[in-house]
Structure formats: structure tokens, C-alpha cells
## 1
Amino acid sequence: MTTDRRSRLLAGAALAATLPLGAAAQTELTLWHMEQPPHRVERVQTLLDEFNESHPDIEIRQEPQNWGEVYAKAPAALAAGAGPDLLFAIPDFTPILKGMGALDDVGDFVEELDAEHDFIDAAVEAYSYDDGVWAVPLYNMSMNLWYRPSVLEDAGIDVPETWEDWRSAAEALTTDGTYGMGLPANRQLYTDQTVYSVMTNGGASEIYDEEGSLRFDTPETVGAYAFYDDMLAFSPPDAPSWTWGEAEACFASRACAMILQFSVISTYDTQAEGDPADLGVAAIPSKDGETHNTIAYANAVMLLSRDEEKLEASKTFVRWLLQPENYGRFLNMEPGLFMPVTADGAEADSFWSDPIVETYRDQIETVIENSRNGMLFGFTSGRVFPAIAAISAQNVLAETLQSIAVSGEDPAQAVAAGEARMQDLTD
Amino acid sequence: MRRPPRWNLALGAVLLLLAALVALPFWFVLTGSIKVPAEIIARTPTIVPESFTLQHYAKLLAASDYPVYMLNSLVVATISTAITLILAIPSAYAFFRMSFRGRETLYRAILLAYAFPSIVILIPLFGIFAKLGLIDSRLALVLVNVAFALPFAIWLLRSFFAGIPVEIEEAARLDGGPPFTVLRRIMIPLVAPGIAAVAVFAFVTAWTEYVFASVMILSDAKRTVPVGFSGIIGQYQIDWGLLLAGASLSILPVVILFAFVGRWFVAGLTEGAVK
């Protein structure tokens, strides 16, 4: 064989070898989320496998992350060019990535999805500011009052509606070795959430006024903090160090008669008696008993890729995920905790046919009902103040409570100091 | 001289208290991992388990990536320990044997590595590693672990070298042994207890390192136990049984290391005492 012929044959073989590769070229995407418990990772993987199989031109792989680290890790990874293409977020995490220029407006895409699935307005509003929408809402969470009907019935107590009822019930249910109410006072996100849940029910939901100035230091806020401090007298002595898990354990072990929590269903079902008839959920009591508000927020997905092909593939995945037959199974990666943000998702068979959801259907319907009055500090009344990210990151709401509950400061002084601290952080 | 009985009693009581302080947390973790969920979360903890189950271990090993995290930790900690020893032994010997200007200053200065809280250098180091293409690699963790373990390892080993009678080394040198041979054949066996102590220190430091592992590693398949495990236990809901089973398994490699190296460590100390 001559050298010339051999060269041509080799060139032909090389060309032939590249053809199948070109035909099978895939767009590879990385998804970061913070749903790390094994059963959630497994559910996400099941869905990704289905998506990848039905979309041979796209391959998505998940990289579960931890909420504890992602605030530092995601900006660092993006700056180093090692970030994900899709990243789950909560409202006060999004401004951090937007602030570093990592996000593009996805308003048109959200509008397209809204036309098809009808998003809950509040879910989209939390991500809409600075003339853009910065993430696509995916799943909702809202805080509720959980109790055991049998315990309340035995004590002859009705489910509390007002702050006065609530305090009396907690006092009556605090007996030897058991506590009427489990409330945290840790400087941590859970306490931010429970404190704000009380604030919203005491007329102190607005941390900013209409002009965007802080209005944290109000008589309503002081009243809410004073009430919360009163209620701590009926909580276990270790409550100041609690996060979500400890509160749930207290409730599941019958040591706490009532707690504030997003959901206790999973733990109650697997670690306590699991009797759906003896698991009660209600709206959080309010000062006057009229309107019951709660803290609620939608988790969302941020589309981070600047590569047109990857961005389009990311959108294809989100479109697929929000289809009711897939969406319900996605929400049920943690049954009873994650609630739909779309109208057709709220009616999806794939959501309601989960065995746990079927068992606790009454409780889940109440949670969805309660979440209609949900709000999040810094994201209220249709206005969004991105500077809230700094306040949230430093847990100033919880820090203010600690000044009262741990250091014994007067609520009025502590709230005034809290506003000054917020001002410092956002100046 | 015989000690008075009340002195023995006091010593025994102190030992018992110490043993309880050290052993009780381990006892609660180990026994908790075999209790059923309701007993684990009971407000009043039971010291002796009233139930028995292996469901938490089964779930941990079958439904999570815990075995992968364990393997990663083993690889990272073992390689970090080996490199720390390979670098620390000649460095410590050099600090002990060689005379050069600024030796004492340099010897003290290496401990400056501990002056910075790791969180302070985390982001700059992330940038450097990103430029070197080391993000999301176990090599990055090995480098960090070695960098943090090495200064103390050198300090510790140098003091062990200093404890060897100078006559032993001089005799070896008189027999014509070059420095490397003297180090390998004479000095290393004599400082074996120190090497064992450094190995345990380096291994445990690498095994428990969290901050860098949490940020430098992006993919689940390369996570080490502390980081992977913190994710497994969840945020809004904690599976307490899973947590206790994972904690129990995570101390196994360290216990095994102590079982092997610790024996050598104690034997070496005893030999030194009678020479």
C-alpha cells in the first residue's frame, strides 16, 4: 500500500469515526440542588433518568449541595467557571447571584410557563424585581401550627385562634415533663421563620415601607417580640438551641403539645405513631383572630448557563418538570413538605396519589389553604427589596429575639437595635 | 511505699469520672443507632436500649452514598497521612540535625500556619485551585490536609529526635553510615512512637476536615464523610437513626487505626522507658 493511499484510508476512517459521534452529540447540564436526604436525591434521580431517556440530546446530572455551604460555594464556583447550569434557590439567595451578574431575566420564559400552568402570583413576585424575573418558581413551603387533637381534647382546649387563646393553651398544656409550645430561639434561619410567622400575625409583616426605607421598629413588631418571649416560657429549656429537626423530635415524642413547622408529616409517619387522625394542623394564631398569616416562600430554579444551547436545554427540562404527571412526583420527593406553585400541579394525580399524601390528605389540604396567606420578609405586598438578602444572611430577626430571650433586653430596645443593625447591613 | 486506701479510692473515682466523660457520648451514639425511632426521640433517653434494630444501618448503606463517602475519606486521609509522614520525617530530622542560619526562627515560623482560621483562606485558596484545575478533585483535599498537618508533625517529630541520646547517632556515624542511612536504619525505628503519633494526628485531621471539603468538592461522588453525611441527615427533617448510624460507622476507621498504630505507639514508649 502506498503512503498516499494509506493516508487517504486513514483520513476516511477518521471521518467515518466522527460521524456517529456528531450525530449523538449531547448537551450536558449540571443541576445543583439542596435536597440532600437520600430519598429526595433518589426521587430527583428517577426523574432525571426519565428525562434523559426521553430527551437523548440532553443529559442532566444532579450534584446535591448543602444549604449551609451553598451561599459561599455557588458564587465561588461560578466565579471560577465551575458552577452549575441549573441551581435551586430561595428568594433571599437569588439576589446574591443576581448581584454578581450571574443571572439573566427569565421573565418571558416564566410568562410562557404561567400561561400553561398558572403560577401562584406570590411565588413569581418573590423573584420579580429590578425589571426582571430571576428564577422560575418550583415548590412552595409554608409554616403551620401542628398539634395533637387528642392532647387538646383531653385538656378541654380548642385549637387556638388568637394570641390570647394560644398563650392560655400553651400554659395549660405545660405540665410535668411536657411543654405546651415548642418555639426556637436559636440565631438561625428556623427562628427567623418562626419569629416572622408571629410578626405577620401581629400586624408587623412589612419590614420596609413603600419608599423602601426600613420600618422594623414599630409598636407592632415590639408587641410580636414581647408575645414570642412570653410563649418561650412554655417551651423546653433547650429550645434556644433548636433547629427544625429538634422541634419535630419534641413534637413526635409527645414532649411538645404544639410546634410551628413547615411539615411534620414525614417524621410523624416514620418516627412517631403515624396515626393520621391524631395529627392536627392549623393556621398560626393571630393577635386578633381575624386574618391568619404565615411565612411562606417558593423555592425556584435559576438558569445560569450563558451558552445558548445549554440554556435552551435547561428550559426544556423545566418545561418537562412542570408537566403535572412529572411535577407531582417531584413535589413528593418529601411528601407533605413541598407544595405546588402551579394550578394544574395542585390538582395533579401524580401529587395526590402518593401513599403518604393519600394518608394525610386532610392535613395537606389545610397546609395548601394556609399557604394562601403566606409572605416572606422583604418580599411583601408585591414589592421586593433585594437588600433583605444581607439581613436574612445574618439572621437579624433571630438575633433580635436572642437579645430579649437570652440577654434579657427590653423588647422595645432590642427591636430598635435590630433596626439599627439592619440599617448597617444594608447601607 | 504503700498508698493509703483513700488515695486509691480517690484515684479510682477520678479515673471513673474521666472514663464516663469520654465513653458516655460514644455509648449514647452507638446504642442510639440500634434503637427504634420512637425510643431515639423519646424525651427521656434510655441508657440501656429497650429495643433493637439494624434498620438505620441498612438504610444508610442501601439508600445513601455513605459507602462512597467512606471510601473517599479513606483515600484522602490515607494519602494525606502518607505524604505528611514522607515530608515531616526528613524535615524534622533536618531541623534537628542541620545547622543553618535562621533555623530556630524558621522552626517557630512554620507554626504560623495555624494562625489563620481556615475560613479566612478558603476563598483565596478556592481561586488558586480553580486556576490550577484542582477544584472538585481529591488531590485538592490532600494538599490542604498535608499543608495543615505538616507544621505540627514537624514540631512533634523534632522533639522525638531530640529525645534520642546523641551517642547512638554518633556511633552510627562513626560506623560510616551516611545521613540518609542513619535516618532510615537508626533514627526512624527509634522515633517510631512519634511517627505513630503523627500518623494518628494526620489521619484524624484529614478524616474530620470539613470546611475545605465542603467547598472544594462539587460532585457527590467525590465527597468525604463529614460533608456527605451532613447532607444525608437533612435540614427541615432529621432522621435521627440515620444520623446515629452514620456517626457510629464514621468512627470505625479511626478506632481501627488506633487499634493497630496505638499498640505500636504504646510499645515504642515502653521500650524507650526501659532503655
## 2
Amino acid sequence: MSARRTGWGGLGELFRKDRSHTVIFLVLAAALLVASPYLDYYNTTALRDAAIFGLFALSLDYFWGKTGQLSFGHAVFFGVGAYAYALVAPELGGTAGSLAGLGAAVALPVVVAGVIGYFLLFAGIRGDFFTIVTLALGVIAQQLAISWVAVTGGDAGLVGVPPLTLGGFVFYSPTSSLYLALGTLVLLYFVVATLSAGHTGKVLTAIQCNETRARSLGYDTSAELLKALMLSAGIAGFAGALYAATSGIVVPDLVGLLLSTEVIMWVVVGGRGTLVGPVVGTFLVMRFQQEISSVSAALWPLIVGVGFVILVFTAPNGLLPWLGRMGRRLTGRRTS
Amino acid sequence: MSDLIVILLNAATLTSILMLVGLGLAIIFGLMRVLNLAHGEFVAIGAFAMVVAHDAGLGFVGGLMLAMAVGALGGLLLEWGIVRHLYDRPIQAILATWGVSLAFQQLLQLAFGTGARTVPAPIKGAVEIMGTAYPAYRLLLITLALLIFVALAIAMRKTSLGLDLRAVIQNREMAESVGINTARTFSISFAIGSAVAAVAGALVAPLVSILPQIGVNYLANSFFVVIVGGVGSMGGVLAGSAFIGGLDSLIAYQLSPSLSRAIVLLLAIILVRFRPQGLVKP
């Protein structure tokens, strides 16, 4: 009992029940690591960005996939993290600046999520209303990022964000920042997957299935949802800081509606609630986006839009569950 | 004094527009509980209908008619092709309508280019109200919006479609069991809601720079009009649009428009927090 309650009990559970997902994740990460020395500059940075956005998608999936509440403004947390790092890191400089920047990039989104979540979740705002309110938060954040020029630099954003520096090592080259992004992704994946497989995840699943019943079992469901949102926001903020540190620039688009939409797309493509799926979805969609953009950049929103509609009708649970079903059907045929 | 009159009339203009956009959404969201994220695009489509009508020399009334027709047809197609299959899957409906919204924006951009378009107001000049000159077109807009609102309110009360609609809003299963064709009621209501939004877009066209993305500006605001007012009532739409539109014009007068939009949404969220059922209970 006590082992389960401590959260780390989930690790055993993770390897017993979700073994296939974890294996898929580890194989993919290892493949990327092995391939990375042979990649050119362009593909290395593209892969690094995909790993960072994959972390962002993972954060959304931990909240949306596990609780069923759709946050339509998740880029707010990513963007706040990015701005926080960009503002704090240059103040101190060096390792101290990087650490303080990362700390701010996690703390500020967690605080923002805490305030918003406390305000909304404890008032019983759920479902449609939660989605609309979070969508509005994205609009608000974008307006603020554009109009608060003194802090955010307005439309031009903040440039010259310092790269991450840890104990004299500067994560400046694309390869080193790719390792950094991949390493963080693997680490945080295990944290989130362990939590999901353990007691916390079970409570969240119970809330998603029937919140009234979960409450009658004695769980403070609003508090559980709030904790999930804050953890999710912290990871999103961390991803935002990594993006700021590796790309060197922060612009209002990072808190905007389109990024909020795209992260939803990544989660949906990969498979909501699977944690691995959204990461894989991010890699696939971003790769696809590069191919399309090399033909025409203006075409991308159209494809995202039509893609949403097609996905909803063909693979509403995402590619991973769809592939799993296909796989089972194929192997089923083979044995019969 | 004259400042106050201008602020009040500006608030009335914005309130009228939001009222029409919110009215369409109140019908769609209130009735079917579908978060139609493509609703804002009907405003954009209506505004571009005005541009087309102006280029073709159809005039203002022609533009309104074109907007209404395109809006109704588009709404019908959207409901028939996509939304009706997703009534039982709310999250999928959100994603699909958002996809439609992105696609519409891009198609408008491909058709009309990225630059802003403008259309002239059908009536020029100003009318003097209590010693203050105010653009005549804005007064026309307020009048037309009120007329549409009253017409729809009467239609809700007096026509059999209105009766069906109210019955379905109150209890879908019961309405179905007494023989109301809910599928038909849904598609007609969706078409009406979209047409009203398109008309709002056509009416606002002479006042703004018409961009393919203008729909997004109205989307969040009109959702709050519906929620703040109270889901499922005409009076709620009136109260909600007065709240959002009034505050927005008041704050925009002191601060920048983009800051005022942020503040108004924030205030709306706070209101929803303390009065989730809305200002007017249905």
C-alpha cells in the first residue's frame, strides 16, 4: 500500500503493464541516438526541435490524456517558460544564469497553472467551459506578449537568448543540444509514465471515467486535477526554456493559438492518453511539415486543418492505437 | 459629455456585432452543445461576401443577401458533412471544427490574398445626437442588428420551428419522443446560426480591415457572450454582448485595443468563475 502511494510504485507497474509502450519509446530514442552522428546540420536541429516539442506534447498528454480535460491554451505554459528563461538567464549569465533561468521557466508556468487551475477547477469548470476558457487564455497571453513591449519585446520578441551552460559546458552545437533534448525527453517520459502507471494515474483515470464517483470515494478531485495541470505546466515550461536556449529567440507565436493547436494535433496524431504516441506524433508531423514547407509554407495551415478533420473520422484514437489494432488483426490472422 | 455619448455609441456598435455573432453561437452551442470553433470563420466569410458584392457592384443590400446565403449554405454543409456525425463525440467535434476553421482561413487567404481589404460604408456622413456627430453607418448597423434580434426572438416564440427548437433545447430525448425531427431541427438551426454570423461579418465589413484571420477575434469573444449571458436564452445573449462589448469599448478608450481585449476576456473568466450559470438564467 505504502509503496503504491509513494508514486515510485508505478515504476514496477510501468514495466509490467505498459511494457510495449515503454519498449517502443526506448527503441526510438536509442535509434535517434545512434543515428545522430550521421545527420547533417539541418536534420540535427530539426530532430532537436522535434524532441523539444515532443516533450511539450508529452506534457499536454499527461493532462488532457489522463484527465480528459482539453486545455486549448497549453502554449501559454510553453511560452511563459520560454520568456522566463530568456529574461532570467542573461541576468546572471553562465551556469548560475542557466539554472536560474530553468528554475524560473518551470516555476512561473507552475504558478500560472496553479492560479488559473485553482480559480477554475475548484469552481467546477470542466469540459466545454474549460476548453473555451483555456482558449481565451491563449488569446490573452498572445495579446499581452505583443503589447507588453518593455518586457517581451513585442512582435519582434527577444533575441540573443543565451544557450544552456552547465559547469563550463555550453550546449551550443546542434549535436550537443540534440543530446540534451533527447536526454531530457527520456528522463521526463519516465517520470510522467511512472506517475501515470502508479496510484496518481489511477486516480486521474477514475476522475476521467466518473468524477462524481471518484469524489464519493474520498478523493479531492479538483485538487488532483490541479496537481496534474501544474505538473503538466511545469514540463511544458521546461520544454519552452529548452526551445529558447537552443534556438536563441523567443517570439509571441510561442504562446499563440496556432502552437496550442499544433500540440493538440501532435497528441491526436500519435494517440491521446498513450504518452508515447504524442511524442512519436510530434516527430512524424514535424517531419511531414518540413516536407510540405519545402514546397509551400502557406500550404501548412490548410493541411493541418484538413488533417484534423481526416483524423477525427479515420483514426479518432490516434495512430498508435490504430497501428496496434492493425497489428493485432494481422497477427490474429496469421495464427488462425 | 460628448465623449460619454461617443463611448456609449461605440459600445452599442460593438455590442450589436457581438450580439449577432453570439446569437448564432447561442443557437449552435446552446442547442446542440457543439463547440463550433469554425463559427468565427462565418464572420470572415460574411465580410468577404461584402467585398465580393462591392467588387461586383451588387451594393450593400446585395452584399447582405450574399453573406446570408453563403453563411446559410456553408452552415448547412458543415453540419451535414461533419458536425452531425460527431454529436456524441464532443472532443472530436471541437477538433474537426477547428480543422475546418484553419482550412477556411487558408482558403480565404488563397482566394483574396494576405493583404487587408476594405469596403466603403453604404451611407456616408454623420448624424448629430445631443450635439455630438456620430457616423450614420454605425447607427444603421445598430438598428439592423436590433431588427434581426427582434425578428429572431419573434421567430423563436411564434413559429413551429422556434417551438421545436426550444423543446429540443430543454430536453432532447423528450422532444424526440413527441415526434420532433431533431436532425432536421439541428441542421436548420445550424444554417440559421451560421447565416446570422455571416450577416454580422457583412455589417462589420465597412468598419474594419478585412483579413482572412478576423474570425479568430470574434471566436473567443462570442463564446464568452454566450457563457457570460447564460447558455440557452436570447436575453442571455443580449446581456452577455452588452457586458463584453460595453467593457471592451470602455477599456479600449483608455488603453490599447489589444490590451483591452485581454482585460475583457480576463474579466469574463472571473465572471464565469463566480456565476457559471451566466447573468441570465434561462
